[in-house]
Amino acid sequence: MQHELIRLCLFSLFSLPVVIYDIKTMKIPVLFSYAGLVFLCAYLFFTDESIFKILFSIIFPLVVFMIVKIICPGGIGNGDIHYSFFCGIFGGIVGINIGLFLAAFFAAIYMMTTKSKKIPFCPFMFFGLILSRILVLFDVFKLFSCYSISDVL
């Protein structure tokens, strides 16, 4: 639990300025994303996280966002792709999948209700990842299946 709290604090420390800046300007300061990535990676190397999990958590969102960028040109910005590295390292293998799904779901609802064509996606990623880590931490998915998420990890 202590590791999760430190992880959450590091993620929030570097994400909140990015989220606020993205809401105001529709741009993401990449420096915060990479600084947070470095700090969170350094922290995780001192925990029992395997290098495979860390690398997969970084590469998976990159692949997803590159596919989205190819399919829908102009649909997602480069800053979102850079920020997704940081989100991946925070969310972990399961958390990033759940977090990106939640982010896309809430962003779609927001776009439909406001009729906006362009939205800052970073805030949705931030809150989707926070929510997914809480769900994984409290093993909410165990209620829906005979397996625990922690068994998969």
Question: What would your notes on this structure say?
Answer:
The protein is mainly alpha-helical and 153 residues long. It has six helices and no strands. It has helices at 2-25, 30-45, 51-71, 78-114, 122-137, 149-152. α1 (2-25) packs antiparallel against α2 (30-45). The longest helix has 37 residues, at 78-114. The model has no long low-confidence stretch (mean pLDDT 85).
Describe the structure using short key phrases.
153 residues; mainly alpha; 77% helix; 0% strand; globular
User: Overall pLDDT, averaged?
Assistant: 85
Low-confidence runs: none
Quaternary status of these chains? single chain
Number of strands: 0
Beta content comes to under 5%
Please state the CA-atom Rg, rounded to the nearest Å: 15 Å
Q: Enumerate how many helices there are, as a single number.
A: 6
* H/E topology pattern: HHHHHH
Structural class: mainly alpha
The biggest beta sheet reads:
none
Q: N- to C-terminal separation? A: 16 Å
| Shape, per Cα inertia axes | globular
Helix content: over 70%
Map the helices and strands.
Layout (H helix, E strand, L loop, with lengths): L1 H24 L4 H16 L5 H21 L6 H37 L7 H16 L11 H4 L1
Helix pairs in contact: 1-2, 1-5, 2-4, 3-4, 4-5
In short:
With 153 residues, this protein is mostly helical.
